[in-house]
Amino acid sequence: MKTYNPYSLENKTILVTGASSGIGRATAIECSKMGANLIVTGRDSERLNQTLAFLGGHNHIALICDITERDQVNDLIAQLPEIHGLVNNAGISKLATIGHIKEAEFQEILQTNTVAPVLLLNSLIKAKKLQKGASVVFTSSIAGVFRSSLANSLYSTSKAAIHGFVRNAALELASKKIRVNSVSPAMIETELIGKSGFITDEQYEKDKLSYPLKRYGKPEEVAHAIIYLLSDAASWVTGTSIVIDGGITLR
Questions:
Q1: What does DSSP say about strands 179-185 and 130-139: parallel, antiparallel, or unpaired?
Q2: pLDDT given at position 203
């Protein structure tokens, strides 16, 4: 007798952007363990193929794509089958105090973290690549609407925009039975928001202890929340964000 698992992704095809490392890689790996067929994308072919090698099963595809480049996105869309889930995860982070903001850097982070993922969903909708009942998950951040920190205004702004978009997209796409949600992690031990060089090692370790659970999160812990939102277990969940923060927003 087959074991009942409401979080199973068996027979679901999931597209994960930014899958070359960090949360994206962990999400792809964990989704494959839950039976999903993965289409992983990223800009770095070597690291993306490393992700592909980590995936269990055989029905997985790696496609090089910089989602900020329209021609590459069009090529990606043309190669995709109909999908059951999208994890819009690709993103970058830059630290700058208000007096040191540079317009080019601001435009880059908005283009990567906000504009490109929104337009990717737009393209998938227009190309009718999302199946009825599909789930879309954006990787946001507690920096978007739940917590502020010094020199993080650029990243925070880009994620706050995602928070607003998710709520509106969920409302609009409900008629198509497409759910749209996000996850909002705090500090996760990844290449993107690990040791940035902006603070000393001592400050870094001290910041960890400011969390009620006394540590930063792991990429797999974010991936498990994403899996919930992709799965049928969350079939009545849309327009929300799951905060994954070790309790830091309680302070």
A1: parallel
A2: 84
Buried residues in 94-120 as b, exposed as e (16+ CB within 10 A) = bbbeeeeeeeeebebbeebbbebbbeb
The 3-state DSSP class for residue 154 equals helix
Q: Are 36 and 233 in contact (CB under 8 A)?
A: no
Q: How far apart are CA 212 and CA 109, in angstroms?
A: 30
Rounded alpha-carbon distances, angstroms, from residue 134 to 31, 74, 84: 15, 20, 5
Distance separating alpha carbons of residues 119 and 71, to the nearest angstrom: 12
- Structure tokens given for 79: 């190669």
What distance in Å separates the CA atoms of residue 52 and residue 19, rounded to the nearest whole number?
A: 9
Question: Could you give the CA distance from residue 60 to residue 135 in angstroms, rounded to a whole number?
Answer: 19
Per-run averaged pLDDT (10 residues), the chain, 251 residues: 90 97 97 97 96 92 97 98 97 93 97 98 98 98 92 96 98 98 94 56 89 97 98 98 97 90
Look at residue 58 in the predicted model and tell me its pLDDT. 82
What does the buried/exposed string (b/e) look like for 202-217 if buried means 16 or more CB atoms within 10 Å of the residue's CB? eeeeeeeeebeeeebb
Please indicate, yes or no, whether the overall pTM of this predicted structure exceeds 0.85.
yes
Residues labelled catalytic? 155
